Automatic annotation (TrEMBL), chain A:
Pfam families: Gpi16. One of its GO terms (cellular component) is GPI-anchor transamidase complex. Residues 1-25 form the signal peptide. The lineage of its organism: Eukaryota, Metazoa, Chordata, Craniata, Vertebrata. Residues 32-86 are annotated as: Disordered. The keyword Membrane does not apply. It comes from the Eukaryota. InterPro entries: PIG-T. Residues 37-49, 59-78 have a biased composition (Basic and acidic residues). This is GPI transamidase component PIG-T-like. GO terms for biological process: attachment of GPI anchor to protein. Coiled coil: none annotated. Keywords: Signal.
Automatic annotation (TrEMBL), chain B:
The lineage of its organism: Eukaryota, Metazoa, Chordata, Craniata, Vertebrata. The keyword Mitochondrion does not apply. GO terms for cellular component: GPI-anchor transamidase complex. It holds the Pfam family PIG-U. Pathway: Glycolipid biosynthesis; glycosylphosphatidylinositol-anchor biosynthesis. Belongs to the PIGU family. PANTHER family: GPI TRANSAMIDASE COMPONENT PIG-U, PHOSPHATIDYLINOSITOL GLYCAN ANCHOR BIOSYNTHESIS CLASS U PROTEIN. The keyword Endoplasmic reticulum applies. This is Phosphatidylinositol glycan anchor biosynthesis, class U. It is found in: Endoplasmic reticulum membrane.
């Protein structure tokens, strides 16, 4: 009887619990549907299409949403009631590829993958444990180390500004890491040390070589790019590893952070054998808090993964000015990432409005205009979320065929380079040359130099000359190095006169290091990281006063304020400096020889101090001494 | 005597002024033999520049001068060349006057001893005549002012010249018998470069001798004077350090100046023994050897003071020489200071054993320093071992020189008590040995 009652109650409980589960899943789904609806309302003015094919796009979007909802439902059933409101928050993913044919005949491809998630990692007492599109490894890093903003880049090769113009996202050769910590962090250096080690593991890079000797706290050059106007640079850490070599082992973990991995979407193009057969490769991760909406009522986290690559005309293109996706990446595009809300390929056709410079196929009717780096650019847009983009072959292989010579490129307005002058291994001079190519506008730039301690800078030898006249910086922040503890940090604000070359020189002395402090290849030299030139450069749009282009007259009288200047960061070359070296093969010999000389000094003083002068009495010959021995026994007088 | 000294000063100043105006001045001021990280003029200017930028000069690792130096050069930075020439002049005049006083004392003592018939009969030729002693002070001044080492040091504007001036003034005040000034100047010298601390013992011995207080630990008069002098010395040291603190408002200069001297973090080559030794040192032995090498500098004070307690001036010479050989950042300016005393011991010449060898070694090394430096740093055809070998030889030569003078001094004292021509028991001529 008892058993029967027991079984009955068990059945009841089962039914009840299944009911409860169903209802909770339903309510979750409803909530999701609600937010989706709202989002789609706010998103309606999405893209101005030239042929007005909104219907197709809507269809596509709905499809994407339905897959999203399915995914959500699966997640929901798995985690049931434990779901917190924050975890249920929406996130979205966008991907895009910009292809810019360069005047040199090379081609520049820039990938950007953006994940946006309106959650708060830094909230006290709330642990974010439910991840969807945002990579969990990075989310945990953000919350554990109270990171407000994180920028990391790995670059192989040097961006040639004078040939290629400005990159979309500049980065110095080697690895660069800069982090703004939240202002509740008490032990910033400790957090920084741990963070670099963790990131070193995540990206398979030697970031663990970042320590206090190559970390600086720039006072003005690196402001937060996201929300919040933090100005206290105690919470900022900046370090570069100019020697870092970037290769496949860094690309693989970077790709793993993408929601679709390298399985679908634009990421299928990222094949390392092609990417690293290029003259410039840079991959980066930028995490920052951004506004959730226009009113900025709530904060969202943005993860932006970028990859920039420049394929060389001769090594990758066999000298033919003919580029295709297949030729560049040995893959073609077949689909968008199903998790992406937008997936687009842009091709820069600004210099080619009539198709006289190069031919682009397949042709696309979609055009988009944007002001990029102070210049108004026109792009052909290929929307991968639309089926007709892929045509009948079900694959998109963009083809760019140059017709004539590339022609002259507009010189970049700001350009900088750097070199070491002097000979011998005792002293030297660092020259930084900054060019302002603007014909009539002067503008200020912030120059930041971080020099390792073993080059002892002499700040009194700092000279800044432009147009062979002394140009006194209006702001100098200098932090001298501490041997084996801290690098030099030199930041200054220099006004660049129009159409000028400004030269900054500072002398340094090379230190002799301990033999264990040299790298395994000491005669290769030591790297000094790039100096960073940050500036608000007057826009080229505003510069355009010759009115030859057909612009409406009403638009060209007063230059538009927003476009009048734009922010640019230029990295110079890293330096390779030789230091004097000791002979690594003879520590024992040196210790022995020096100690011998000290012992000679000690010995001769000891000798003179402890002994006294005495008349030297020569000792008797051996035979006499033996005879004396016998005589002593016999008691006979001794011989002398 | 004033006229030759004036002439000497004029000649010395002219040489320096010409060199300051020549293109060599910059070359000389970069030489590692002439300037060390402690006293390079470039670093003084850097410190002033940092101060102008509103950065503490001690926040970096370039400036290692004391706060007094900043304060001094804050006002006279534009007249630096004159300051360094004046410093050299002061050193020379102070040495001149000290040796003059010393010679007078020596002569008086010799006269008393002669009158009381304390010297053996055959020692008369060891005694010093006023005639040969007359030019010694001038020679000392000349040895300092015209020594190429001093000239180089002055032209490079190495602050070593100023430290030398303080030490020379200290010697002058000591020999003139002013315990107060002597204590203050010794404190100043210690404050500048810590090592002159060891000169406390000879100064104390000199004053005790001058006041006829026997060195006896059971006598209260000995303790009274020792404590008095120590009080002056320590008191002025505390005052000077305190003043520096008020000048800068922080104690940063203590690790940056004295910590730098003791822990030898900068391994820039110089003429000393430290740089290559600690560049090649195994990391776990570093602390041990730093302690050994630093104790080595100070350690000789005690046995030397016991052995030479009757001869405090010679003890001063020995101490200065030992400091300049074994200190962590020696320059040729330090060498020049003790070399200036050599004419004062010209009567020891007959007992020197290997002065010819030593002078050849020192001359050859001085010539080889720039050559091997050029081969290593600029030509790239030699390596660090070449330069290191020369520093070793140079220090070896200096050690031989100093120990030779020590030997000669002791031997002369022995002869003055036991007679010059010693006989063996069998009446043949005997040889003296150390036993």
């Amino acid at each position: 009887m008892a058993a029967h009652r027991c079984g009955l109650s068990l059945v009841f409980i089962l039914i009840f619990s299944s009911l409860a589960c169903h209802s909770s899943c339903d309510s979750l789904e409803n909530a999701n549907e609600d937010t989706e609806e709202k989002q789609s309302v706010s998103d309606t003015p999405r893209e101005v299409n030239s042929d007005g094919s909104i219907a197709a796009e809507d269809l596509n979007e709905r499809r994407g949403r339905s897959t999203d909802a399915e995914l959500d439902r699966r997640d929901g059933t798995r985690t049931s009631e434990a779901l917190t409101p924050a975890a249920a928050a929406r996130d979205e993913f966008q991907e895009e590829l910009v292809i810019r044919p360069l005047h040199s005949g090379d081609i520049y491809a820039s990938f950007q993958f953006r994940t946006l998630w309106d959650t708060d990692f830094l909230q006290e007492g709330q642990k974010v444990s439910h991840y969807r599109l945002f990579p969990k490894s990075l989310g945990q890093v953000l919350s554990k180390f109270s990171v407000r903003e994180l920028h990391i880049s790995f670059t192989q090769g040097f961006w040639r500004t004078m040939q290629w113009g400005q990159p979309f996202i500049p980065s110095p050769p080697g690895a660069e890491l800069w982090v703004w910590f939240h202002d509740t962090v008490s032990d910033v250096d400790g957090n920084w040390k741990e963070l670099t080690n963790v990131l070193s593991g995540i990206f398979c890079a030697s970031l663990n070589f970042i320590d206090l000797t190559n970390t600086v706290q720039p006072s003005a050059s690196f402001k937060p790019l996201g929300l919040g106007n933090a100005t206290d640079h105690r919470f900022l850490r900046y370090a570069t590893l100019p020697r870092e070599i970037v290769c496949t082992e860094n690309l693989t973990p970077w790709k793993k952070l993408l929601p679709c991995g390298s399985k679908a979407g634009l990421a299928v193009l990222l094949k390392s054998e092609k990417l690293f057969h290029s003259s410039f490769h840079s991959q980066a991760v930028h995490i920052r808090p951004v506004c959730q909406d226009e009113q900025c009522t709530s904060k969202a986290w943005e993860l932006r993964q970028t990859l920039n690559v420049v394929f060389d005309l001769y090594t990758a293109g066999q000298g033919k000015k003919e580029w295709s996706l297949f030729k560049m990446f040995s893959r073609t595009l077949t689909e968008a990432c199903p998790l992406a809300t937008s997936s687009k390929v842009y091709v820069d056709i600004t210099d080619n409005p009539e198709g006289e410079l190069f031919e682009l196929s397949p042709a696309t009717p979609l055009l988009s205009q944007a002001v990029v780096l102070g210049d108004r650019r026109t792009y052909s847009v290929f929307d991968l979320t639309r089926a007709e983009t892929f045509g009948q072959l079900r694959s998109l292989n963009l083809l760019l065929r140059w017709k004539g010579d590339g022609g002259e490129m507009l010189r970049p307005l700001l350009h900088a380079e750097r070199y070491v002058a002097g000979f011998g291994l005792q002293t030297g001079e660092i020259h930084t040359v900054i060019y302002n190519n603007h014909p009539y506008r002067a503008f200020p730039v912030l120059l930041m130099d971080s020099v390792p301690w073993y080059l002892q800078l002499y700040i009194h030898t700092l000279t800044v000359t432009s147009k062979s006249r002394d140009n006194k910086p209006s702001y100098i922040h200098y932090q001298p190095a501490k041997d084996r503890h801290r690098p030099h940090l030199l930041e200054m604000l220099i006004q660049l006169p129009p159409h000028s070359m400004t030269e900054v020189t500072v002398q340094f002395e090379r230190a002799l290091l301990k033999w264990t402090e040299y790298t395994p290849d000491p005669n290769h030299g030591f790297y000094v990281g790039s100096s960073v030139v940050s500036a608000l450069v007057p826009s080229m749009v505003a510069m355009n006063t010759n009115f030859t282009q057909d612009q409406p007259l009403f638009s060209s009288f007063v230059p538009v304020k927003e476009e009048s200047s734009y922010f640019v960061r230029v990295y110079t070359e890293p330096l390779l400096v030789n230091l004097p070296t000791p002979d690594f093969s003879m520590p024992y010999n040196v210790i022995c020889l020096t100690c011998t000389v000290v012992a000679v000094g000690y010995g001769s003083f000891y000798n003179l101090l402890t002994r006294t002068f005495q008349v030297d009495e020569p000792s008797l010959p051996l035979a006499k001494r033996l005879a004396n021995l016998i005589r002593r026994i016999r008691g006979v007088p001794l011989l002398t | 005597m004033a006229a030759p000294l004036t002439l000497l000063l004029i000649v010395a100043v002219t040489i320096r002024a010409v060199l300051f105006r020549s293109s060599w001045a910059e070359l000389i001021s970069e030489r590692v033999e002439v300037v060390s990280p402690l006293n390079a003029w470039k670093r003084v200017v850097e410190g002033l520049a940092l101060l102008d930028l509103g950065v503490s000069p001690y926040s970096g690792d370039v400036f290692h001068e004391t706060p007094f130096m900043i304060y001094l050069f804050h006002f006279v930075v534009d007249y630096a060349e004159i300051v360094f020439m004046i410093a050299d002049g002061i050193t020379a005049v102070a040495l001149y006057l000290s040796i003059q006083t010393y010679n007078k004392n020596v002569f008086r003592k010799q006269k008393y001893a002669l009158e009381s018939d304390r010297y053996p009969a055959d020692c008369l030729e060891l005694l010093r005549s006023p005639k040969e002693m007359f030019y010694i002070p001038l020679k000392v001044a000349m040895f300092y002012l015209l020594n190429p080492f001093t000239i180089l040091s002055c032209v490079a504007k190495s602050t070593c010249g100023l430290n030398n001036a303080i030490i020379a003034l200290f010697i002058l005040c000591t020999l003139k018998g002013s315990a107060l000034l002597s204590g203050i100047l010794l404190a100043l010298a210690t404050y500048q470069s810590i090592y002159p601390l060891t000169l406390f013992a000879p100064a104390l011995l000199f004053f005790l001798q001058r006041l006829y207080i026997p060195v006896n630990l059971r006598r209260s008069s000995f303790w009274f004077f020792t404590l008095q002098y120590a009080f002056i010395y320590v008191g002025s040291l505390v005052v000077i350090t305190g003043l520096s603190f008020f000048l800068l408002g922080s104690w940063d200069f203590i690790p940056s100046v004295y910590g730098f001297i003791f822990s030898v973090p900068d391994l820039t080559p110089n003429i000393g023994l430290f740089w290559y030794f600690f560049a090649e040192m195994f990391e776990h032995f570093r602390l041990f050897f730093i302690c050994v090498f630093q104790i080595n500098v100070f350690f000789y004070t005690i046995p030397l003071s016991i052995k030479l307690k009757e001869h405090p001036v010679f003890l001063i010479f020995m101490q200065i020489a030992i400091i300049s050989i074994f200190k962590s950042y020696p320059t040729v300016g330090d060498v020049a200071l003790y070399m200036a005393f050599l004419p004062a011991w010209s009567h020891l010449y007959r007992f020197l054993r290997n002065i010819f060898l030593v002078s050849c070694v020192l001359l050859a090394c001085s010539a080889l320093f720039p050559v091997l430096w050029h081969l290593w740093i600029y030509a790239g055809s030699a390596n660090s071992n070449f330069y290191y070998a020369i520093t070793l030889l140079f220090n070896f030569g200096q050690i031989l020189l100093v120990s030779d003078y020590f030997y000669a001094y002791l031997r002369r004292e022995h002869h003055l008590t036991h007679g010059l021509y010693l006989k063996k028991k069998d009446g043949t001529e005997a040889t003296l040995v150390l036993k």
